[in-house]
Amino acid sequence: MDLSVIIPVANLILDLVLLVFMLSLLIPVLRGAPFVPTNDQRIKKAFELVDLKPQQRMVDIGSGDGRILLEGAKRGATAYGLEINPLLVTKTKKLAKKEGLNERVFCLWGNFWWHDFFTYDVVFIYGITYIMRGLEKKLLRELKPGAKVVAFVFPFPNWQPRESEGGIYIYEKSLS
Length: 176
What we know:
- By secondary structure, this protein is an alpha/beta fold.
- 43% of the residues lie in helices and 19% in strands.
- The longest helix has 29 residues.
């Protein structure tokens, strides 16, 4: 084999792999919040406050490593994650399979701004200040009456929480 052909092709493949990796890290920062893991105690407290019921449908916007999805599935919910970082989507799917929860956990690669939320009973979000106003409007428009939202750290600017504790805000869309 001629190394003068193999080496440039190998370099091109390596460059493409590095580009995909860098984009998977950069796009979330530019389009939303960076991945910041929520600690397990805060996740458990959020589930206590929101009172997720078995058979409910939940979604985690920016689902990161999938721990919120796994906890929801363990509590009997069907858990959906929306994540823009393909590496984290893959990690979540592997964890769900390892835990035997892949029939209840679904992680989708994509942008939550293009996703409809009318089918969910509970929405989780660890956003950042500059997206919360637009997300508040989107969820108020799209959620069904009685649906709940759990926001970590960053509250919505206008929607009053039903309950809050330690940086966890619980909202409920009114029935009217």
